[in-house]
């Protein structure tokens, strides 16, 4: 597993579809499962979706929490 891919999961947004604009790390499991059944896209996006599917399927989403940027508190 490439550590850079884990960082991309929490920084790259889904570029199309129902969840366009949502971080790859925040895509719902059923959507990732659909890709797993129907086929992941080619290239980096497909690699990241497949990785996120594995993390979700194995209940490892929490491993991404330390990589997320902290949310700014309103002043």
Automatic annotation (TrEMBL):
Pfam entry (one): QSregVF_b
Origin superkingdom: Bacteria
InterPro entries: QSregVF_b
This protein's name: DUF3820 family protein
């Amino acid at each position: 597993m490439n550590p850079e891919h884990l960082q991309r999961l929490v920084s790259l947004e889904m570029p199309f579809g129902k969840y366009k604009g949502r971080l790859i790390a925040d895509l719902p499991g059923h959507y990732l499962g659909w890709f797993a059944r129907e086929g992941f896209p080619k290239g980096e996006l497909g690699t990241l979706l497949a990785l996120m599917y594995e993390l979700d399927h194995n209940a490892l989403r929490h491993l991404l929490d330390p990589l997320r940027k902290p949310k700014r508190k309103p002043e």
